[in-house]
Write a structure and sequence with these properties.
The protein has 702 residues and is mostly beta strands. It is built from two helices and 59 strands. The radius of gyration is 27 Å and the shape is elongated. Among the domains are: 305 residues, Methylamine Dehydrogenase, Chain H (7 Propeller), CATH 2.130.10.10; 186 residues, Methylamine Dehydrogenase, Chain H, CATH 2.130.10.10.
């Protein structure tokens, strides 16, 4: 998981189709008691907690830290520890363990070496449901990226962005925070996203109903008091990793470079910590009794006058939580847990050797811990026991009572304990399908949209909800393309030549003349449908049967688009484009030698292609191909869709979505992060666009 690398860094630190001319030639190839709750707080190093830049003018990925982008059409952004089935030639994009590219224009979070720009001094107070334009942190220069967006997550819900921490006041009042300023609230019936324009948030805590704090990147502090809230001046640009308190006028926030801040009910002030190490966890029992963690350094104690180190067993510590002054837990590396009984810290064996990143104590006989192995630990008063199931890496865990606990983590993952078992929250995980990649999307209207991808699933949107259907229980064929002539006439194509048809009631397998993987579908009518795929294969449906036609190329074909029965283009590897004139396929120039991954147009003289290696968009105007600047740092564009000459959309790596307004391409903030890749795009018009991609991502806007 993304936070794991930062934790280990702390340890190290502590220790168009036609025969016209081609312009320019070929391109180069929870508790509500006074003792409070602990916030999730993974101990981290500033140097390794870089924030990805989502601005349109950001730089390309760091060459020293990244490899070439993942191979086209084969990217599996599911992490190595996901249970989703591997796709053919799948490239694992495990951000924690692989050499996947860094986020573009990563902002180094090492505030000791680089100064952040100044920010306005005013506090941005706003209603908790407002979309706020994030201009900066008041008074402390925190870097705020443009997260405010009108796009909505439709899968997973409430968001697919990584959640870093969770805190609960009760079964109907739960808060979780995460990447890119994500804040979500559970009211007992549904999760609701809350937008304040903050940067990445690491921890959340509350003292009473209506009084909530969240802290994070660049000294960010967010406060909610009742129904309103916003950014609050912290006086620092240091990364803040944990927040906790004993009441509304006794709150602590801790972070990088030994930063410890205290809120007295009126303002945040810095309190000497006696260390320059990252302080990665904090928990307060009373105004004169608080504990803080410094990685492998001493555990610090606040006695009401000063912070001082306390002798503890050896270890590296990440989080702390308690129920009172004589019942406190600390967790850390190698599954080690410590317990404070009011007199001394003692080591207590657990059932794991994984890095435990979060702990929540409910009572002397009820505590929870979670970590990097995806298992949840429970303390029953005598021993730690371990859950049997393995889930994506958990970043934060909390509980409001014996029958109400929550765990959050990668990909917006949310899990709930009801007193008997841990279950995936149905409101959050209804259409995850093993954290799979969705490859394509098509619709006939905003109330009839289909999405397909790895794992043999097809998803349908009826205007209210997405419903998953598994095509066959035994067969596990990846589906790569979908096209619909009508709500009761839908085609899907996938690996090994698989073709399926929906007649309005059921899906059925249709005989296919090829075993080649099929990558795309397009049709002009119910009796004129095309499928293209590996080794140049081209299939045609005439209303009665699929037949294979002679292709003009042996190159893999990744996209097909047309404007009628005698005007169809298929595009793919090595810049290949071939044109169907109603009689035969013939090769035509494309203006590039890069692999073409997407093709779409609104008219024969308004055609777009998206390429792999250089993330280029090329346009055909009826006479020539020309490359059009994308103004984007994404290394790969996987899909393009055009509704008119002044409205086209493209989706690619690093969560980038681009829009063409008839004059220029520009990036659009959609609320995805750099681990999410847009693989398919479909639009009913300029006001209704659907983007699908890795991690079961479905975004709808604008």
């Amino acid at each position: 998981m993304r936070r794991l690398s930062t934790l280990f860094a702390l340890i190290a630190l502590a220790t168009g189709c036609g025969d016209a001319a081609v312009e320019g030639g070929d391109a180069d190839a929870s508790d509500t008691s006074a003792t409070g709750d602990t916030a999730d707080a993974d101990a981290v190093s500033d140097a390794d907690s870089a924030e990805p830049d989502t601005s349109a003018d950001s730089d390309a990925p760091d060459a020293a830290d990244s490899t070439a982008p993942d191979a086209p059409s084969d990217v599996a952004a599911d992490t190595a520890d996901s249970a989703a089935p591997d796709a053919p030639s799948e490239v694992a994009a495990d951000t924690a363990d692989s050499a996947a590219p860094d986020a573009p224009s990563e902002v180094a979070a090492d505030t000791a070496d680089s100064a952040a720009p100044d920010a306005p001094s005013d506090v941005a107070d706003t209603a908790d449901t407002a979309e706020v334009e994030p201009d900066g942190l008041p008074g402390d220069g925190g870097i705020i990226l443009p997260y405010a967006t009108t796009w909505e997550w439709q899968n997973p819900l409430p968001s697919g962005l990584e959640l870093n921490a969770v805190w609960a006041a009760g079964p109907a009042d739960v808060w979780a925070v995460g990447e890119y300023g994500t804040i979500v609230h559970w009211d007992g019936a549904r999760w609701r996203r809350v937008a304040v324009g903050a940067s990445t948030l690491r921890a959340v805590w509350g003292s009473a109903r209506g009084d909530r704090w969240a802290v994070g990147y660049g000294g960010t502090i967010v406060h909610f008091d009742g129904d309103s809230g916003g950014l609050v001046a912290s006086g620092t640009t240091a990364e803040l990793w944990a927040v906790s308190g004993s009441g509304p006028d006794d709150v602590w926030a801790v972070g990088a470079q030994g930063t410890i801040l205290h809120w007295d009910g009126a303002a945040w002030t810095r309190v000497p910590s006696g260390t320059t190490k990252t302080v990665g966890g904090v928990w307060a029992a009373a105004p004169n009794d608080a504990w803080a963690l410094t990685g492998d350094g001493p555990i610090l104690h606040w006695d009401g006058a000063a912070w001082a180190g306390v002798e503890t067993p050896a270890g590296t510590w990440s989080d702390v939580s308690g129920t009172g002054p004589d019942d406190i837990w600390v967790v850390g590396t190698a599954g080690v847990t410590l317990h404070w009984d009011g007199a001394a810290w003692t080591s207590v064996p657990s059932n794991t050797t994984a890095f435990l990143t979060s702990v929540k104590a409910v009572s002397a006989r009820d505590a929870w811990a979670s970590g990097t192995d995806g298992r949840i630990q429970h303390w029953d008063g005598s021993a730690w026991t371990q859950s049997d199931d393995v889930v994506p890496d958990i970043n934060g865990i909390t509980a409001s009572g014996a029958n109400d606990a929550w765990a959050v983590g990668e990909y917006g993952y949310i899990r709930h304990w009801d007193g008997a078992a841990w279950t995936s929250d149905p409101a959050n995980n209804a259409v995850r399908n093993g954290y799979t990649t969705l490859e394509d999307v098509w619709g006939t209207s905003p109330t009839d949209v289909w999405a397909v991808g790895y794992g043999n699933y097809v998803l349908h949107w009826d205007g209210v909800a997405w419903t998953p259907t598994r095509l066959f229980e035994v067969t596990n064929v990846n589906t790569n393309a979908v096209w619909a002539a009508a709500p009761d006439d839908v085609w899907i194509a996938g690996d090994s030549g698989a073709i399926y048809h929906f007649d309005g009631d059921d899906w059925a397998y249709v005989a296919s003349p090829t075993w080649q993987d099929l990558h795309d579908l397009w049709g002009s009518a119910a009796d004129d449908v095309w499928a293209v795929g590996a080794s140049g294969v081209v299939l045609h449906w005439d209303g009665a049967a699929w037949t294979e036609l002679e292709s003009a190329t042996g190159e893999d074909l990744k996209g097909v688009w047309g404007f009628g029965p005698d005007e169809v283009c298929a595009a793919g590897a090595a810049g290949t484009i071939q044109r169907w004139d109603g009689v035969q396929w013939e090769l035509v120039p494309s203006g590039t030698t890069d692999e073409i991954l997407g093709i779409s147009g609104s008219a024969p003289d308004d055609l777009w292609i998206a390429t792999y290696a250089h993330a280029e968009l090329h346009h055909w105007d009826g006479a020539t191909w020309s490359e059009v600047a994308t103004n984007s740092a994404t290394p790969v564009l996987y899909a393009v869709w055009s509704t008119s000459r002044d409205d086209a959309w493209a989706a690619g790596a690093y969560g980038r979505v681009l829009h063409w307004d008839g004059v220029a391409w520009a990036e659009v903030a959609v609320g995805a992060d750099y681990t999410q890749y847009g693989r398919g795009v479909w639009a009913a018009g300029p006001d209704y666009v659907v983007v699908v991609g890795t991690q079961s991502m479905i975004l709808v806007g604008p």
